[in-house]
Amino acid sequence: MEHYTIAVIDDDKGNLKIAERILSLYGYRVVCLDCGEALLEYIKNNKPDLMLLDIHMTGINGFETLQKLKSNHEVRDIPVIILTSDGDPETETKALSAGAADFVAKPFVASVLLLRVKNTIELNRLQRDLKSEAKKLSASFIEEHRKNERLSMQVVQTLAGAVDAKDKYTNGHSTRVAEYSREIARSVGLSEKEQEKIYMMGLLHDVGKIGMPDYVINKPTKLTPEEYDIIKTHPLVGYDILKNISEMPQLAVAARWHHERYDGKGYPDGLTGEDIPMEVRIITVADAYDAMSSRRSYHEVFAQEYIRGELRNNMGTQFDPKFAQIMLDMIDEDTEYSMREDPDTYHVGDDGLTVEESQNAEKDLVFGFLSMLEAGGLDTAVGMKYCMNDTEFYAEMLTEFTGGSDDRIRHLEESVACGNIEQYRVYAHSLKSASKTVGAIEISENAGKLEEAAVNGDWKYITDNTPDIIAELRAVVGSILMSMSVYGLG
Prior knowledge:
This protein has helices spanning about 15-25, 35-40, 60-70, 90-100, 110-135, 140-165, 175-185, 190-205, 215, 225-230, 235-240, 250-255, 280-290, 305-315, 320-335, 360-375, 380-385, 390-405, 405-420, 420-440, 440-455, 460-485, and strands spanning about 5-10, 30-35, 50-55, 80-85, 100-105, 345-350, 355. The chain is an alpha/beta fold. Among the domains are: about 1-140, Rossmann fold; about 360-485, Up-down Bundle (Four Helix Bundle (Hemerythrin (Met), subunit A)), CATH 1.20.120. Strand 4, helix 4 and strand 5 (about 100-105) form a beta-alpha-beta unit. Helix 7 (about 175-185) packs antiparallel against helix 8 (about 190-205), helix 19 runs antiparallel to helix 22 (about 460-485) and helix 21 runs antiparallel to helix 22 (about 460-485). The longest helix has 28 residues, at about 460-485. The two termini are about 35 Å apart. About 35% of the residues are buried.
């Protein structure tokens, strides 16, 4: 991976910290700046690959900063993603008109932030490449064709990454299915060109999941019949997404039919036997294998012997016998069980399931800590989501939140005392975002109401309700500090 530099500009320390954690974990160099003035000074000697810019800041705001960036010919082509917790479409329209490349909502959802950053950087890089290529008219047709093929693969891989980023339980699934499918195709004697085609089909077989609701696709418990009916529409959604790619019609075929069964009991069209295209019959076997050899919300990684039995028992019903047998041969050759999700993370237990190498005592500690936070008024499911389900990082963000609470209270009180409604709006906006990040939902909602009151010039509402939100903030901070002290995390 190329090491891209990303400048993050936000006057809230918590937002900077969580953005830096998310982005640095995935190899980006992150520069954190707390105001627009600091960014304008930074770019005098530095050229980041991307800028993440908050709108509501003290000093010059995000719109003013963006305008100055776009008037500077040395940095005007560096893409800018706007950070905001506003739900106002006018804000989005104004920023896009001013030259912003995209939006990311606060608090950050790690998968969404990473996907938007990755896509924006890749799009900008592709645009630069296209501009460069336009100047090289002497390139041969063959070389151009090869470049187009590479570009097509990059686009397919990026789209597959978007699918995996949406579904937190199937990270890397599309790539593994593509690799297993290509190996089956090689074993059956298909040409390298056919192998490459089936690899691309495997990458995008689940692209329809992009259109599935997050609450369904990431549900940690069993789906209801209604939710399962929603999930069963993803092959048709995928087909609709890919059907107009005339140069690669096979992509749409795999998306539509990868849940068909050899015995005709699959969906959406109930195809039977060899009416299902050969490539799809291969992908179906690879897809089922990866589902069993990867962790899901409803099961851990299954042992090889269990998977072998499932494939053998469903030959001729769910799977084409020929391709199921090739997959069985691949399993027999994989004596170290390396064909699975994160093979170094699990070991196989005596019960036939693989078990994560973590201690039950640690799980009990985490459960107790989160339960105590819940009792203190936090929605820890929300907080953990924004902290990538990393308990240690969640504890860091809670420390950041509690450590900055006195400053937040002082800023609100001083803004009221001096009658500065614009400053009050900025501080209420910051509290709204920071509170939601740690799961303090009630405070976040009340801060949003105070922000709206500031926008509308409603001083009475502000003066009447500011003492209440300060009391709420102090109470939640107190419960957080007690929980962290009890569990030795303070």
